[in-house]
Amino acid sequence: MRIRLFNGQTTDESCDVDSTLSQVKDTISTKHNIPRGSFHFRQTYPNTIFDEAKEKDTLRDLGLYPNATLVVTSNNPALLNPTPSPAPQTGGGDYITATVNYLYSWVTWFAGTTPPAPTNDPQEPFPSQSNRGKVHHVSSEKEYNQLKNTNDLVIVDISATWCGPCKKIAPYFEDLATKHRSVVFLHVDLDKFKNSLSDLKGINSVPTFLYFKNKRLVTTVKGAN
Question: What gap in Å lies between CA 88 and CA 80, rounded to an integer?
Answer without folding.
Answer: 9
